[in-house]
Design a protein that fits this description.
The complex is a heterodimer of chains A (about 900) and B (about 400).
Chain A: E1 2-7, E2 16-21, E3 27-31, H1 44-47, E4 63-64, E5 67-68, H2 71-89, E6 94-98, H3 104-117, E7 123-125, H4 127-142, H5 151-156, E8 159-163, H6 167-170, H7 172-184, E9 189-193, H8 199-202, E10 206-208, H9 215-228, H10 234-240, E11 241-242, H11 244-251, H12 256-263, H13 267-279, E12 283-287, H14 289-292, H15 297-310, E13 320-323, H16 330-336, H17 351-361, H18 374-382, E14 388-392, H19 396-399, H20 403-412, E15 415-420, E16 433-436, E17 445-448, E18 453-457, H21 470-480, H22 492-504, H23 523-527, E19 532-533, E20 558-559, E21 579-583, E22 609-612, H24 614-620, E23 627-632, E24 635-643, E25 651-655, E26 688-689, E27 691-694, E28 697-705, E29 716-722, E30 725-733, H25 738-749, E31 755-761, E32 766-773, E33 776-784, H26 793-801, H27 808-813, E34 825-827, E35 832-833, H28 834-842, H29 848-855, H30 865-876
Parallel strand pairs in A: 6-7, 6-14, 8-9, 8-12, 9-10, 11-20, 12-13, 14-15, 15-16, 21-25, 22-24
Antiparallel strand pairs in A: 1-2, 2-3, 4-5, 4-16, 17-18, 18-19, 21-26, 22-25, 23-24, 23-27, 28-30, 28-33, 29-30, 31-32, 32-33, 34-35
Helix pairs in contact in A: 2-21, 3-16, 3-21, 3-22, 4-15, 9-11, 9-12, 9-13, 9-15, 12-13, 18-20, 28-30
Chain B: E1 4-8, H1 12-22, E2 29-33, H2 46-50, E3 71-74, E4 79-83, E5 88-91, E6 96-98, E7 101-104, E8 108-110, E9 123-125, H3 129-137, E10 144-148, H4 152-164, E11 167-172, H5 184-196, E12 200-203, E13 207-213, E14 216-222, E15 227-229, E16 232-235, E17 239-241, H6 244-248, E18 257-259, E19 270-272, E20 277-279, E21 282-283, H7 287-301, E22 316-320, E23 323-329, E24 336-342, E25 347-354, E26 357-364, H8 370-379, H9 387-390, H10 394-406
Parallel strand pairs in B: 1-2, 1-7, 2-3, 7-19, 9-16, 10-11, 10-16, 11-12, 18-20
Antiparallel strand pairs in B: 4-5, 5-6, 8-17, 13-14, 14-15, 20-21, 22-23, 23-26, 24-25, 25-26
Helix pairs in contact in B: 1-7
The chains are: A alpha/beta (about 900), B alpha/beta (about 400).
């Protein structure tokens, strides 16, 4: 057994993970007690990391236009295409689309090749979709992309204002740190600002359920209130800021009553929040995608930052405007300069920056102006302006807004390269070349979390097949293009130390991002590297940035950006329609390419559904589990209805995770127009206007298979991984005879060697079919006119693992009276279902703690605690 | 003086009657007259004995000693006449036995195939323990046996012969086996299952002529002209009630001896039960109604004049070559069909619904809950709440019903 310390590849909290690699490459993981981000804690996604190390779906060999080929041949073709497109159509015709999943070293090499040697700044990343508005706002305010907070600030803060963040689900470990600090001191308060009731808002002291996209009104109004009530820190404003006058002029109209009218809150609520903010010195405003993903994203963020600047509440313990990122290495990408509007290492496209970087890289053909940001990049691809696109480690066919446009662009593009660890994504289906990349647990490098802590991701296992690191692929292509001298990397440490040197190159305190203290690392020191916060310059400069009020703006003062709030941009004539909101689920990540393979993570929420308020459901004639079509223009998704008390009327919530790999029509971003923030290029992913209509069905089905099923035309399907196979829930359109679907399914399921058994009651559309080979269940398919007549999924999922299946009849019954259903999984960490919790509550359990003692639920990552509380509340009235 | 009860026939019906009488207080002196040297054995199990699956001793239906205790057995005795006036029976061997009450339990014989058999050796039936003894002595290995008739008896016989080592085939006039008890698919399932053990089947076929050589059977010709070589031919072409004795005695007969619900015949103090009897238009070949008759008749004989034999749709419950078969209700009934097919296990089940009522059930290979289905049919129970689990028996139906309410 070997032990290894590494970093979790999910959210921006960046928790340390201790992995043990046993014989046969079996890996177990635990939270790293030494890591400052989590001190041993892990959330449910982190806890199940070892289960993602599955060969299923892995891309193992280079593939060119569907044919397996050698690395040499694949790289030759990539290099040749890149070269010829660039020669024929110019540097602007080539682009890289990167990802917050890449390691800093991968990012660095890709950025260097494109911006330094191909003369194009067309390098953008999926971080554009998450937090580019936050980056733009920090840059506008501070003159640099500097996050002026640490996780400990949340704990020390007397008031945490969470805006557009459901951290209880999206950043569970950080949220638990926050909750624990509140437990220790009940005077510390939490306010959640979110249109939607969430697990985070349930546990908050105050929930301001604002109208979608009205965040900036609240904070501009707060600025006005702080000014009007004498809460401004005049000394700080005088010493360290500029621009207050203009900002206040724009804010003057935002009285609490105007704010209340714009946000849909009551005046009393607005005033209560303003008083709390005004009277509390130690305030952290924690914000995330709900603020960023807006056509006014940068303004939203600056409206928040302004309130901290005018009160001088930043740069001191327990205070500050804190943008938390969604991806494990969004920060590393920002540091490298992997966004189209950055050059490298916190340098932009000023002449002096260009000259400095060109000199450092010895770059022959450096880009001189910003490149195209994600949305514009894919527009240029569709328009034929970009003809060569290399996508690394992400799935834009699902994650971009207006995904129909993105798919068109990918289909039209002359040459699309995708390097990824899995080969079965929606984007892979559009790519000409697939390059097998190493994934988490195989690759080696660094990531930076949301509090600027650089940690190592380390290899635990040998890579499967011919998988290679992304930096190696880029290096190989660069060498083929004739840049061997500049891309002579043998080890990620070579790249990291160059990156560190560049951060300190000609810096002398002029740029915040400086890790030159690490530039001298030997390979061995790199391997041993402990989590390290930046800045860490080789020669410490007096005074920490921002913290000491030292800003990198031209004037050296922070800018108070005048914000004129605006509501989200919607299509005309859509005011009467419901607003679509989108976001993450507790146990899922991105487009499920990783979490979707872990059965345990599919038990909290299994099949694709959208949430509606009870009143809207009633108005639409929809009941729980009905099928609903959510439409925006030509695009639509089809989902199960989930009725949530916490949903506000007039809003629909869809999780973002589903792709065509996991569901028939569930790619929510097809409904989102590609409206972007003019400042940051961040798309407005959080809002769209949609119409709802019930989808009539003639029957429902549940299909359990060992391999991916072939499905006939269906009104709806959604598939989850279960142990040893897949479980698909589907619905048959009312116009399609159930028997047609039944026949088509049988045709695809039955094969030689499998003995089939069946039951049918045509009158109820009740068809049940199972196939057994060598004593093992191969498939089970149940159709019924009514969904609740389908078998219990937990019972069903156990059947694939059963050895020596001899009682086919009870399989066909689809029901085992001896095995009670566990119900919906509430605590994924300890696998505690709602039935057990309900029983414990009826047996007298009255607190989350007693449930934890009895069942262990809620005692690991804690993300189910809000749900446990709700269940206790319901049960005890 | 004890009254005299004479039972003609010492087969299963007689045995059930004796069992029923033994369970009651009575003063009858009973005389049991049987043609065979064996009495009161379980004829249904003869093919299992032939197959070597059941030892001979297990055939006995009455505990040792029961026949001697107050019962006089006249074995190897054929009753040749009955005088209902003088209440006397006469046997071939010259016995004259007077009765106060007489019971006909003369059973049935294999229906005549309507073929010229020319006294060929190797043309047989399987009806008695003596038949078993004869067949058991035959050299089976390497020899071919044909069974004519794909009903219950024929299939059981075929199973026995096949187990003995005969190269066995069944000729059946209908297109599926057991056409009286099973639907086509059920019959087909049964055929497949039996074919797995090596038995061959000629369905939709019948024998036109037999051929012999030196008095020994050598082949048969089928109606379609095909000729099948064989050394043994067993007829299992249905059964005929044996009513000649009663008819000769002037008792009213149809195909069988006509009885009323008290099982009385047209002659005073004369009763009939079992395969030889007929109530209305119905004759009886299955165990269940005959056992019911025995109970009614025993009650009558013990002074319970109110006891009545009531016609029902008795479910058919059988086991052929290890395959359970159950059928109840009217098989041909139109209605919604619930069908379970499990080829690997040779399980086939079909339930027929009319509205919310179960009207028929055919179970092959797995007859669990058959009795429950028969009750549901008989009581015309509303099964709508059970329907999703109905096929899977009572426990699943009731639990699914509960879980649906809980959900």
């Amino acid at each position: 057994m070997t032990q290894c310390r590494t970093t979790c590849p999910y959210c921006g909290v960046g928790c340390g993970v201790t992995a043990e690699v046993h014989s046969d490459n079996v890996v177990t993981v635990a939270g790293d007690r030494q890591h400052p981000a989590n001190a041993g804690r892990l959330c449910v996604k982190g806890t199940t990391l070892a289960e993602t190390l599955t060969p299923e779906g892995r891309l193992l060999h280079p593939v060119v236009r569907g044919e397996r080929t050698s690395w040499d041949s694949a790289l030759d073709q990539v290099a040749q295409q890149l070269q010829s497109v660039r020669q024929q159509y110019g540097p602007g015709s080539v682009a890289f689309y990167l990802s917050g999943q890449l390691l800093t070293e991968d990012y660095y090499v890709a950025n260097k090749l494109m911006k330094g040697f191909l003369g194009s700044a067309n390098v953008d990343t999926n971080s554009r979709l998450c937090m580019s508005a936050a980056v733009a706002a920090y840059q506008r305010a501070f003159g640099a992309d500097y996050v002026p907070c640490s996780y400990s600030d949340l704990e020390e803060s007397d008031l945490v204002v969470m805006v557009g963040s459901n951290a209880a689900w999206t950043h569970p470990v950080l949220y638990q740190r926050l909750v624990e600090s509140r437990k220790a001191d009940s005077r510390k308060q939490t306010v959640v600002i979110d249109p939607r009731g969430t697990a985070s808002s349930e546990a908050a002291d105050m929930h301001l359920q604002i109208a979608p996209g009205s965040d900036a009104y609240l904070f501009v109004g707060l600025l006005n209130y702080l000014s009007a009530t004498g809460k401004l820190d005049q000394w700080y404003i005088q010493s360290h800021t500029t621009g207050l006058g203009d900002a206040l002029a724009l804010a003057a109209a935002m009285t609490p009553s105007v704010v209340a009218a714009m946000t849909g809150l009551e005046v009393r609520q607005v005033e209560q929040f303003y008083r709390l903010f005004g009277d509390t010195e130690k305030v952290v405003t924690l914000y995330s995608q709900g603020v960023n993903q807006s056509a006014t994203g940068a303004d939203n963020c600056n409206a928040i930052i302004n309130c901290h600047l005018v009160t001088g509440r930043l740069g001191r313990p327990g205070m500050g405007p804190f943008s938390i990122t969604g991806q494990p290495n969004a920060m590393g990408g920002r540091e490298v300069g992997g966004l189209a509007n950055q050059l490298a290492a916190h340098m932009g496209f000023s002449d002096s920056d260009i000259e400095r970087v060109a000199r450092f890289w010895n770059a022959p053909d450096i880009a001189r102006s910003p490149g195209l940001k994600a949305v514009d990049m894919f527009r240029a691809v569709e328009a034929g302006e970009i003809r060569f696109l290399w996508i690394m480690a992400t799935n834009p066919a699902v994650s971009m807004p207006d995904t129909a446009q993105v798919r068109r662009a990918l289909d039209n593009c002359e040459f699309v390269v995708l390097s990824d660890c899995v080969g079965d994504t929606d984007t892979a289906a559009c790519a000409d070349v697939l390059l097998p990349a190493m994934g988490w647990g195989e690759k080696s490098g660094t990531v930076t979390n949301s509090e600027r802590c650089i940690s190592r991701q380390r290899a635990l296992l040998p890579a499967p097949g011919e998988a290679r690191p992304d930096w190696w692929m880029v290096t190989q292509v660069a060498q083929r293009l004739g840049f061997a001298a500049a891309f002579d990397y043998q080890h990620p440490a070579d790249i990291f130390t160059e990156h560190a040197r560049l951060s300190g190159f000609g810096n002398a305190g002029s740029r915040d991002f400086d890790i030159s203290a690490l530039a001298g690392f030997s390979e061995a020191e790199y391997e041993q590297m402990e989590p390290t916060y930046w800045p860490c310059p080789a020669t410490p400069t007096p005074g920490a940035p921002v913290v000491e009020g030292r800003f990198h703006t031209a004037s050296g003062a922070a800018n108070i950006v005048a914000v004129n709030p605006a509501l989200p941009v919607f299509a005309a004539d859509s005011a009467h329609l419901p607003t679509l909101n989108s976001g993450r689920l507790r146990d899922q990540w991105h487009t499920m390419t990783r979490t979707g393979r872990v059965p345990r993570l599919m038990r909290h929420r299994d099949f694709y559904s959208v949430a509606l308020s009870p009143a809207d459901a009633l108005a639409q004639g929809l009941a729980e589990h009905d099928l609903v079509s959510v439409q925006a223009g030509e695009a639509s998704v089809t989902a199960l209805v989930r009725i949530e008390e916490a949903m506000p009327q007039g809003q629909v919530f869809s999780p973002i995770h589903w792709s065509n790999r996991f569901a028939g029509s569930a790619c929510v971003n097809t409904l989102i127009p590609a409206v972007t923030d003019p400042v940051s290029g961040q798309p407005q992913l959080k809002y769209s206007r949609v119409s709802l209509s019930a989808v009539p069905v003639s029957g429902w089905g549940l299909l359990l298979t060992r391999s991916l099923p072939e499905l006939p035309g269906l009104a709806y399907w959604s598939r989850i991984a279960v142990g040893d196979g897949h479980l698909t829930l589907f619905a048959i359109a009312a116009a399609t005879p159930v028997t047609d679907v039944h026949q088509a399914l049988l045709l695809s399921l039955q094969r030689g060697g499998v003995r089939n058994s069946s039951y049918q009651d045509a009158g109820l559309h009740d068809y049940r079919d199972i196939g057994i080979e060598a004593g093992q269940l191969q498939y089970a398919c149940y159709l019924n006119a009514e969904r609740q007549r389908l078998p219990d999924r937990d019972w069903l999922c156990t059947q694939l693992a059963a050895v020596g299946v001899d009682d086919r009849v009870s399989l066909l019954a689809g029901f085992d009276p001896d095995i009670p259903s566990v119900g919906r999984m509430v605590c994924t960490c300890w696998e505690v279902g709602e039935r057990a919790i309900q029983e414990a509550v009826s047996a007298g359990a009255r607190s989350v703690e007693s449930l934890g003692q009895q069942l262990r639920c809620g005692t690991q990552c804690g993300s189910c605690v809000p749900e446990l509380k709700r269940m206790l509340l319901v049960a005890t009235g | 003086m004890a009254s005299r009860l004479v039972i003609v026939g010492a087969g299963m019906a007689a045995a059930y009657l004796l069992q029923e009488l033994a369970a009651r207080e009575h003063t009858w002196h009973i005389t049991l007259i049987g043609e065979e040297r064996d009495a009161c054995y379980n004829r249904v199990m003869l093919s299992a004995v032939l197959a070597g699956e059941t030892p001979d001793a297990e055939l006995q239906m009455l505990p040792a000693g029961r026949l001697q205790d107050g019962v006089t057995l006249l074995a190897n005795s054929r009753v040749c006449a009955v005088d209902t006036q003088t209440q006397t029976v006469f046997t071939d061997s010259g016995d004259v036995v007077a009765y106060d009450k007489l019971v006909f339990a003369t059973g049935a014989s294999v229906a005549s195939p309507g073929l010229v058999t020319d006294g060929l050796a190797g043309v047989r039936v399987l009806r008695t323990l003596d038949d078993v003894r004869y067949l058991r002595e035959l050299q089976a290995t390497g020899r071919r046996a044909l069974v004519v008739g794909g009903g219950l008896l024929g299939l059981e016989a075929a199973h026995g012969l096949n187990a003995m080592g005969f190269d066995t085939a069944v000729i059946h006039r209908q297109h599926h086996l057991m056409n009286r008890q099973l639907d086509a698919r059920g019959g087909d399932y049964l055929r497949q299952k039996m074919a797995d053990s090596g038995i061959r089947f000629h369905l939709g076929a019948s024998v036109r002529a037999l051929h012999g050589c030196d008095g020994e059977l050598s082949a048969v010709t089928l109606q379609d002209g095909r000729q099948l070589d064989c050394e043994l031919l067993l007829f299992a072409t249905g059964i005929e009630p044996r009513s000649a004795l009663a008819r000769d005695a002037g008792i009213n007969c149809g195909r069988g001896i006509l009885v009323d619900p008290q099982l009385q015949t047209s002659a005073r103090n004369c009763y009939a039960l079992g395969e030889c009897s007929q109530l209305g238009s119905r004759c009886f070949g299955l165990v269940a109604p005959i056992k019911a008759q025995a109970a009614v008749l025993a009650a009558q004989l013990c002074g319970d004049a109110a006891a009545r034999f009531v016609l029902e749709d008795w479910p058919v419950q059988l086991k052929i070559s290890g395959i359970e078969i159950f059928s109840a209700g009217s098989l041909g009934a139109a209605g919604e069909q619930l069908v379970l097919l499990d080829e690997a296990a040779g399980v086939y089940r079909r339930l027929v619904l009319q509205g919310d009522r179960l009207v028929a059930a055919v179970l092959v290979g797995d007859k669990r809950d058959g009795i429950w289905y028969a009750q549901l049919i008989r009581n015309a129970t509303d099964i709508s709440r059970y329907r999703p689990g109905l096929m899977f028996g009572r426990a699943v139906s009731e639990a699914m019903q509960v879980s649906a309410i809980a959900a």
